[in-house]
């Protein structure tokens, strides 16, 4: 039987249904006994669904932040 760590490492594959038949059976067996992993996968699915519904940004916020930092670093020096 799979351990919790193995199930969480397979999280994306579980949600995207990219598991072999054998692995899928092992995951289902584990989930039938582990409420913690069921909750984890439910939260992971909800997060993935929420992110898919967000409108795409023209420029990722992280990129804008890094650009602002770079401009400050390249700014006038005393």
TrEMBL record:
Keywords: Plasmid
Highest taxon of source: Bacteria
Domain Putative zinc-finger: start-end pairs: 4-38
The name this protein goes by in its record: Putative zinc-finger domain-containing protein
């Amino acid at each position: 039987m799979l351990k919790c760590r193995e199930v969480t490492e397979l999280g994306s594959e579980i949600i995207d249904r990219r598991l072999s038949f054998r692995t899928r059976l092992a995951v289902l067996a584990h989930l039938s006994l582990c409420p913690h992993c069921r909750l984890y996968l439910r939260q992971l699915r909800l997060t993935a669904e929420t992110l898919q519904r967000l409108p795409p940004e023209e420029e990722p916020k992280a990129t804008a932040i890094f650009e602002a930092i770079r401009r400050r670093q390249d700014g006038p020096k005393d």
